[in-house]
Amino acid sequence: MKPVDAHLDEILAAVRPIDPAELDLDDVLGAVLAENVTSPVALPPFDNSAMDGYAVRAADVEKATEERPVLLPVAADVPAGEQAPRVVEPGSVTRVMTGAPLPEGADAVVPVEWTDGGTVRVAIHRPPALGNAIRRSGEDVRAGDVVLTAGTLIGPAQLGILAGVGRRTVRARPRPRVLVLSTGAELVDPGLPLGPGQIWESNSFMLVASVRQAGGEAVRRSAVGDDPAAFLETLTGLLGDADAVITSGGISMGAYEPVKEALTPLGTVRFEKVAMQPGMPQGFGAVGTRNTPIFTLPGNPVSSFVSFVLFVRPALDRMRGLPAGPPRTVTATTTEALRSPDGRRSYLRGVLNGAEVAPVRGQGSHRLAALAGADALIVVPERVTEVPAGTAVEVIPL
Ligand SMILES: Nc1nc2c(c(=O)[nH]1)N[C@H]1C(S)=C(S)[C@@H](COP(=O)(O)OP(=O)(O)OC[C@H]3O[C@@H](n4cnc5c(N)ncnc54)[C@H](O)[C@@H]3O)O[C@H]1N2
Ligand code: MOO
Hints:
By secondary structure, the chain is an alpha/beta fold. It is built from seven helices and 28 strands. A hairpin with a 2-residue loop joins β24 and β25 (356-359).
């Protein structure tokens, strides 16, 4: 059987980062920057007030106390968005709002809470320190500074600074578009009634969610029947400009294996057994004129889920231009004894609790409810068949 690591290596060697494109800011959440972004201006662009209050010359109000407030005329009023009067003359103040430009000569802002809030004259009853509540031009970013580097994953905060430096579009690798197809004549869409021998289709929902969580966009097509020709037609029809395809089911040793039967003659998808439990039957290759990578995952729901974590997720990372490799593991102590088949690496579902991990009840690869109660995969190496309680094990947090 093929080792897990060899299968992942083969996949990572075959998939390439998606070409960058000029993307609108509204479409870049989850994309990965393909340029260094510099700021054309300083941020803040001008000295401005950090509080609603009064721009003053600190020396004018240094003697202010609760008992003896200093009374000064309000010479001007500057809301945010207005240009400041050129200068605040000694012995007067300018009323300012948060974000308003500071008038020349002002060296402190007195928050309105330290005053009587006057608009013609103001009584200030507490002296500000020099520079109080002033945000200096360029203290966040200087003009020409690189604010984000190529390879950065764009999240909400990164979107904030892109907009903050005035960018409407950026060059970035878009999120991979993934077509998700599930196969099986026994499958019925949730929401519809079940007939005899039928079950509700769950893999396509789980895999679409996995794709989205992994930073991709997904298109779902559930319950393609068990006819290889119909499967191939559906695949070809939906392939379009997808960056990757995931299928579930139809790849093992049964009499009706539409995915395997449809794709094997193409010669571009390899079906093999990978030394793991669950998820032993695997297929990977390329389809269509654009050599779109295809992952044919086993139909058992837990097998599909684990295969995504081990193989598809790293591949999507590579396609996004992010560092890609096996899932991150932590070490924990198992609270119970574990069993694993000889020659296969097990990924047992478990619950991680600090430095301890407990396997969930029900390790069968059809046990969706048990999977839903887990938040980690406990890794048992190929040659290990029994792990006593209290042993340190590697764990993949989910
Ligand atoms: N004789 C053998 N039988 C099986 C072997 C084997 O080596 N020899 N391998 C077993 C293993 S391991 C797995 S995993 C499965 C993989 O089978 P397929 O990928 O062909 O999947 P199916 O046969 O279509 O389905 C398996 C199982 O999962 C249920 N299923 C499938 N798709 C969905 C879905 N979208 N939503 C919910 N449930 C789904 C399906 O009803 C079956 O119960 O093969 C073993 N057999
Ligand atoms: O390898 Mo299968 O994936 O056990 O259920």
